[in-house]
Amino acid sequence: MKDNRIPFQKYTSRQEQLAAQYNWEYFSKQHKKGKLTAKERIELLFDENSFEEIDAFVKPSGNIKTNIYGDGVICGHGKINGRKVFAFAQDFTFMGGSLGSVHAAKIMKVQDMALSMGHPIIGLIDSGGARIQEGVASLAGYAGIFHRNVKASGVIPQISVILGPAAGGAVYSPALTDFIFMTRQTAYMFVTGPEIVKEVLNEETNSEDLGGADIHGSKSGVAHFVYDDEEHTLLGVRKLLQYLPSNNVDFPPVLVQEALAPNNPQKLGVIIPEEANIPYDMLDIVNNITDKGSFFEISENFAGNIIIGFARLQNKVIGLVANQPKVLAGVLDINSAEKAARFVRFCDAFNIPILVLEDVPGFLPGSNQEHSGIIRHGAKLLYAFSEASVPKITVIVRKAYGGAYIVMNSKNMGGDFNFAWPTAEIAVMGPEGAVKILHRKELIQSKNSDELKAKLIADYKENIANPYIADEKGYVDEVIEPANTRKKLISAFEALENKYMEKIAKKHGNIPL
Q1: Which CATH class is domain 8-241?
Q2: What is the pLDDT of residues 407-460, one digit of tens each?
Q3: Does the annotation count 403 as an active-site position?
Q4: Active site residue 123
Q5: Is-catalytic flag, 404?
Q6: Any catalytic annotation for residue 168?
Q7: Per the residue annotation, which of 169, 211, 217, 415 is the catalytic one?
Q8: Distance between CA atoms of 435 and 443, rounded to whole angstroms?
Q9: Within the chain, what is the greatest distance between any pair of CA atoms?
Q10: Region of 500 on the Ramachandran plot (φ > 0 left; ψ -120 to 50 alpha; else beta)
């Protein structure tokens, strides 16, 4: 019987042809633009020699004639920090990385594989958008990718890394993922580009000002991490994955080493100023509670009045939400509420315990906030904390006033352990405002209103806002000394390790979007 199999040499020739694509010209095209190639990005992102490519030999569909394999995207799996991860990297050197039906099918295949096998997926984005030659087929490809983003949401971590253009419909896959990285000067995201903005609105702008990394890292909040170059961006992705579980039934990785405790926990007792209206840096508290050097901040330049990020406590991962008194006095506003709410929901989806460090005087007042929907946006954070079933601990370090106190994981919102420092002030409103309302007539009639006001404020702090009163009523579990905070938190999180909450049967809730 005749053997019709293709001789082994043919496969070798094919592999050589694929390798020959990555020649000097291939690398120089990207390097001239100050960018790395898709192949270099994959090699930097994954552990050495661990990446296995899938569908390397496919070619575009339709009338596009080419000897180039891959259709402008490298897909596959490998290991990052020793753990399995799937990824795709768009290749701008082939048709501008444009998305056609075959290109999309390759991405959808690794999305399906990552979801079914329970591994994170990373998209390295560098694309001119939909392939015009393929018409509706390219749009259908985007739709299939978006649909899989939604299916995988809350099941596996999804990370988007913007390393070039992402325009039009291409921006919505990253927007549906959990975290977005961008690189300065080379990465752009916008629904409509500068040319269309000029044509429709007669507004002069450029790619950087319209949708560059710094714009999305500080003004829109779309980008969670911004780095100066691609090497540091990809190292940032590797670092983030050290804090994340592989899927929603897994737990975050625990470091097997001696925990690096902060150098000087006694410093916690002197960080809070004696005068309640003087700001300080909440990061000083964060870094003197968590394992040394472990805090990894997210959205650092957006909504700076609240801090979010991952840290370790005795080598175990926690998600941290903290008011930042040195920005807008730490008030909650639209941007900070939304920023924190999304992070809380991510932590809850992926079994990451949450620590809240609270110093919040209230919600930001003003017609701009009210007209822009502070009620609806503030309710998102309330909803997120109340819905979360992971261990949740709050430490009130100074102010906890009014509705903002309730929203920041208060005891009756489902906080598991709620502690307060002796410097805490827990009340419906701040002492000065409360005294003006409660003692308005007395202050008007008094001959020495300043002296009376000072006395009334001191009485209010002592008899109403005092944290020991909240302790006695059970709204705070314990008033603790600042220097003992780390020890108390480690013990409390250990007690919560087996926490279980049975949820009411329903399709899903209706978060106030």
Answers
A1: alpha beta
A2: 999 999 999 999 999 999 999 988 888 888 888 888 777 767 778 888 888 888
A3: yes
A4: no
A5: yes
A6: yes
A7: 169
A8: 9
A9: 116
A10: beta
